[in-house]
Structures are given as C-alpha cells and as structure tokens.
C-alpha cells in the first residue's frame, strides 16, 4: 500500500526511540499486516486505533518479539530500537522484552502467586533485583490505581481479584520492571470509568520517562492520552495496513484520508 | 422501609423446590420397580443378578421415563434414562469394589498383625502358625524396586512431557509417536526385553535392578502422556505473560507453568506408580523371590509384594492361603497410604 505517512521525528521534535520499517506479518500463508512504517519518539504516547481484526494486537506483538512465540508466525521488515534491529541475528529476545514491557488485551495474572508475588514476578522472572521490594510493590500498585483496594490483602491469591482488578494488577506488574517502552493492548477495555481515568493519568505521568504505545477502541481515550495516532485498517480479507498516522490532533480534527475521518467520527468500524 | 420488608430473609434454593405431585411421581417411580422386581423374582425363583439386570433395570428405566414424561415433558426422558443408568452403574461399581475390599479384609486380616509388617518369612513354611513370620521383606522389596523405577521415570517422563509442550522442536512428532506406542507394551514383554537385553547379554547380574528397569519402561509412557496433557492445560496466556516480562524459558517454566500444573503433575506421578506397583509378570521373570530381607537392589534376589502373594498361592494349605490374602490386603493398604500422602502434599494451595 502507498499513502503511508511515517510520523517523522521532525514533526514531533524528539529522537526516535522505536520504529518499524516495512513490517509485514503472516500467520501461515495468511498475510495479515502489510508495510507498516511507524516511528515512536522518545517519551511519546502513541495510540493505535482501527476496527476489530485489523492487526493492532498483531503489530504490537512484533514490537517486543512476542510475535515469534505463535507457532506459524512469519515476519518481514525491521523493528529498530534506538536504531538497532531487534530481529537482527544475535539479538537476545529476552533483553528486548525486558526493555519493552507489555500489558495484554486479556488479563493474565499468575494464578499460583499472591498479589504481591505477581507485582514482583517480573523481577524474579527476569533476574533483576530491587533494594526495597515493599516500596516497589506499593508504588507499582499505586500507579495502576489498585493499591487502595488490595493493600490489606497483598498475600491473597491473584485469582481472587475481579477481572478489572486483575487487569490493573497486570499493569502494575509491567510497571514494576520500569521498562523503557511500554506496550499496552487495550488496557482499559475491562475497566470502569474511574479506573480508566486513573490509568490514563498513570500513562501521562510514566510517559515523562517511558515511551508508550497503546491500542484502544476508545476515541476519547486516544485523544486524552496520546500525542500521535496511527489508524490501522484491513479491508475485506486483505492484509491490514496503516491508513494514516500523525499527530493525534491532526488525525482527529484534520484527517487527510476520508476513511480516517469516517472512522474517528464513528461513521464506520 | 415498611415492616413487610423487615421480616427475616433466609437463604433458599428455589430452583430445587418440587411440587407435591412431582414428589409423588418421583416416589412411585423410585419404589414401584424395586417392589415389582422383588415380587417377580420371588414368584419365578430368579437369581439375584438376573432379576437385577433383566427385570429391575428395564422396569426402572420405564418408570423413570414415564415419571419424567408426566412431570417435565418429552425433554425429561433422556435425562431420566441417563440418571437411572448412571446411578445403576455407579451402584454396581460401588458394590463390586466394596465386595473386593470386603473379601480382602475378611480373608486377609488374620495374616496381618504388627509383627507381620516387619518380620520376614525366612523360616516360615506353608504350615507355620500365623504368629510367626510376615511380609516385611516384601514391603521393603516393593519399595526398593518401585522406588528406583519412580526415581528415574518421574523426572525423565516429566522432562519429555515438557519437551513435547514447551518446545517447538521438529522431533516432537516422533517422540510423541514412540511414547504412545510404548504405552501399549505388555508387561511380560517389558520383562522379557530386559531379561534378553540386560541379563542374557551379561551386562547386569541377577538382581532387583532388572525389575526396576522393567517397571521403569512400563511407567515412562504413562508419565510422558499424562504430564503432556496436564501441561497442555496451562493457559497459553500465562506462558506469554511470563515471557513478556523477560523470563528465560526455564524460569517461565519453573516459576509459572510448573506451579500452575503442580497438582496435575502429582496426580500423574501417582497414576504412573499405580500402573506398576502391583505389576507381577516382569518381576516373576526377572527377580527371584527371596523369603528374607534384601536391601541391595544391585545384587541378589529380592521379594516384592506381588511375588510374595504369588509364592504363597503355590501352596494349598489354609495358612499359606491366608498369608497370600494378607499380602493382597497389605498391598492395597500400601497403595492407599501412598495415594493419601501424595494427595496431601499435592493439594491445591489456592
Ligand atoms: N494466532 C493467530 N493465528 C492466525 N491468525 C491470527 C492469529 N492471531 C490473529 N490472527 C488474525 O490476524 C488478524 C489480526 O488480528 P489482531 O488480533 O491483531 O486484531 P486486532 O486489531 O487486535 O483486533 P481487536 O481490536 O479485536 O483486538 C485477524 O484477522 C486474526 O484473525
Ligand atoms: Mg487486539
């Protein structure tokens, strides 16, 4: 597809942290993403929007090498983290995933661990250490706006939380590792308005020193949290692609493409 | 708030409430067939088992179906038939199991006593009083022979299960095929294989370890198969969650996947052990029965519970017979104790 509008670092005015060069994705023979070129500047928040099934989750998984865990996954193109291709031969996927954290679309806390254990699981699993674990647990849970609800039962199993609480626990778990880049796949889709607002505040505050990529179906949310937006679309069984990308303000109020305008104004999708 | 709403509210289960007429039909449908069967069997002098299967079961199915048709309608019939069949089969199985357990206890308890658990049968003949001798040597033997098989089969079997579920290796297909083929290995063939391969070739001298190897071969495919199934039940999302946090594969396995599958893995080990603990054929071929205690699996003959039982069955005296039954009872108790212990340690924490 032509008409790609790679967000240029000039228009945003910061160094590029993460970028993709002509990324294509297949599952087996099925081509699901085509020619994605995007740039994510340092400490920016980027919203990925688009109708269901257009490949947003698939794209976000290619950014921290989670894509390759799906058995018949294929990929072409480059994903550059500070200029270095994370798919280059010899790059350790574990290091990539430590640097680029992720919150999944479906909450997936570890059911055999306590709430506290879940928050600290990233440290244990990646072999990092923290000087003050209690403080880390509290700060992470505060940032995920879960602290007040669970501070008295940090040692109860994670499975005893409600769905929305589990999702916030997963956010806390990702934040505890303080990654350079945080990928969030519809983190608020299971949350009530209050928690959603608090998560958005968290995103705003962590983006002071973290680059955030967030998938969302909520147009208001995209406008509230993000500086730039990319609109994905997949038409009639064709692979998904980026129709338009640019500053959030432009995408929502001054879109260049008719389809973007229709989508953000709720006329289709 | 009105006084009406202040009355005490008690927890109820309204979906279980049945009307009076329903209760009457259910009562008739569950007593009439039994009463009729009793009368018919009495008149025609039918044997109990025949009366139960060709008179009672059809009558009961019919009565339950009719009652269901009247109280619920057409869609109740299948439900009634299934309920009756399941209950009937359950009671039959319960009866069979109960009678096995009962005859084991009845015939075996005389040969079981405190001293029987730690004494061996070295000076015991088929006419020695039950006050002397016991099956301690066979208990030791079974624990040694089965224990060695378990120590090797459990880690290797689980490791193969992990290989099958946690890796993307191309070899998985053939490994899975081989282990499934091994599941069908008859135990006597396993015994003969070890006999030919390890003993006749002179690699291993006559000793209990030969039996352990045969039991190992029987246990391994069961453990591989079951641990693969149990690990497959761990949701894929948990693996992704762990790996996305930057976990190396082994840490993701030991800290997330294994804990999630732990109680299933323990059941796997139990079923594997159950598969071999009463296994007799390979032990008869490979490990000669010894009436005294031998702790050393690497040399000499050794007793085991199955061969102990078998050795007394060869005599026709009452006393020998009682010792054999005592052995069977002890074996059952041993299995019960092992399973209770494993269940206790394997219970879910959350
Ligand atoms: N594991 C998989 N195997 C095969 N096809 C897949 C797999 N995962 C996703 N797909 C396909 O890839 C396409 C993109 O899916 P993806 O999950 O990325 O959509 P999405 O944009 O995240 O949608 P949603 O907004 O509903 O989450 C879909 O057509 C989907 O059917
Ligand atoms: Mg998605």
Write the layout of secondary structure elements.
The complex is a heterodimer of chains A (269) and B (350).
Chain A: H1 9-12, E1 16-27, E2 30-41, E3 45-49, H2 56-62, E4 73-81, E5 84-85, H3 93-99, E6 100-103, H4 115-126, H5 133-143, H6 147-150, H7 163-176, E7 181-185, H8 193-206, E8 211-215, H9 219-225, E9 228-233, E10 241-247, H10 248-253, H11 258-264
Parallel strand pairs in A: 3-8, 3-9, 6-7, 7-8
Antiparallel strand pairs in A: 1-2, 1-4, 4-5, 9-10
Helix pairs in contact in A: 4-7, 5-7
Chain B: H1 20-44, H2 48-71, H3 75-108, H4 114-118, H5 136-166, H6 172-183, H7 187-199, H8 208-232, H9 236-244, H10 249-277, H11 281-286, H12 305-313, H13 318-346
Structure description:
The complex is a heterodimer of chains A (269) and B (350). In chain A, 35% of the residues lie in helices and 25% in strands. Chain A is α/β, with parallel strands linked by helices and 269 residues long. Chain A has one domain: 3-Layer(aba) Sandwich (Rossmann fold). Chain A has a six-stranded mixed β-sheet with strand order 6-7-8-3-9-10, sandwiched between helices. The longest helix of chain A has 14 residues, at 163-176. Residues 1-10 of chain A have low confidence and may be disordered. Chain B is an all-alpha fold and 350 residues long. Chain B has two domains: 3-107, no CATH class; 136-347, MetI-like fold (Orthogonal Bundle). Helix content of chain B is 72%, strand content 0%. Chain B is built from 13 helices and no strands. The chains are: A alpha/beta (269), B mainly alpha (350). The interface between A and B is medium-sized, with 30 and 23 residues. The complex binds adenosine-5'-triphosphate and magnesium ion. The site of adenosine-5'-triphosphate has 11 residues of chain A, from α2.
